[in-house]
Amino acid sequence: MKNKQEAKQHYENNKLEKRLCRLAGEAIHNFNMIEDSDKIMVCMSGGKDSYAMLDILLKLKARAPINFSIIAVNLDQKQPDFPEHILPNYFKSLGIDYHIEEQDTYSIVKRIVPEGKTTCGLCSRLRRGILYRVADELGANKIALGHHRDDILETVLLNLFYGGRLKGMPPKLLSDDGKHIIIRPLAYVQEKDLEEYAKVKQFPIIPCNLCGSQPNLQRGEMKKLIQSWSKHTGRVENFFAALSKVVPSHLMDANLFDFKTLSNMQNVEGDIAFDDEPCAAPNSGLNNNINLVKFR
Predict the structure, then answer these.
(1) Cα torsion 173, 177, 179, 180: sign
(2) Where are the beta strands (DSSP E) in 152-249?
(3) Cβ–Cβ contacts within 10 Å for residue 112, how many?
(4) Where are the beta strands (DSSP E) in 35-189?
(5) Are 23 and 16 in contact (CB under 8 A)?
């Protein structure tokens, strides 16, 4: 009986790993995230997402039809009780290149942000600037972040409800200075799968609350909203699919579509007068028929 249960669990674990590699491979292909001779700086926080991203990228690297290199980078921000030995030991066990950047941003944030307020915004900006510099020093032309599908959806809702704009978290992004390309290989992956994968792989997780910061209550609210929608079949999947099926002519941004000079000679998304019935949702699959580069 025990052997049967173990065999079943092994099968499920293997299926999970294949699904994660397949989804990451699709995202990498669809957005051309990784090219031949790239040097990718994989940002490691010590959380489940970055561990899974590194693990999957290493697996894809071994199977990919192109050559690229990986260097794992952790920014030690000198948070109290940060177990600074965990990540170096983990990287050594994998036998991969790594770099630990030590910068005391914790003291800066604590000095500037009032007690009780969330420090995440300022901390993120400081961390971003440091990682850009480190990427230059290491000669990395791509910076990989571990954001997943749920992060992307939460960001869309945060911008919609609190920022009054339709803006998300793209799978691939050029930095403001034009020097760095940020990629998110886990863009198609659900957080619940990453949670399960972290348990299977027994990653040495470092807690994310060492800084003592207040949680981002607004993001937490968006997370709960998405979780409530997941009870309805296809709702979250259609929401995510909609991010890649934007119709500028049917929105209200005059910077994206020239409404002022619109004439009856223009072909606007093929419509004559009325759009399709909104409740008749199309297939929400993500490029299911595309011929993928064999990253998996």
Answers:
(1) negative
(2) 172-174, 181-183
(3) 11
(4) 39-43, 69-76, 98-102, 142-144, 172-174, 181-183
(5) no
Residue with tokens 């619109």: 262
Give the tokens for residue 228. 């409530």
Distance CA(78)–CA(92), nearest Å, equals 21
Residues forming a β-bridge with 41: 71, 143
Which stretches in the chain have pLDDT values below 70? 1, 116-120, 122, 209-215, 264-296
Tokens of 294: 């064999």
The answer to whether 210 and 80 have CB atoms below 8 angstroms apart is: yes
Report the alpha-carbon distance of residue 33 to residue 147 in Å, rounded.
14
Sheet holding 39-43, edge to edge: 98-102, 69-76, 39-43, 142-144, 181-183, 172-174
Over residues 10-41, the pLDDT tens digits come to: 999 999 999 999 999 999 999 999 999 999 99
Give per-residue pLDDT as tens, 153-178. 999 999 999 999 999 999 999 987 78
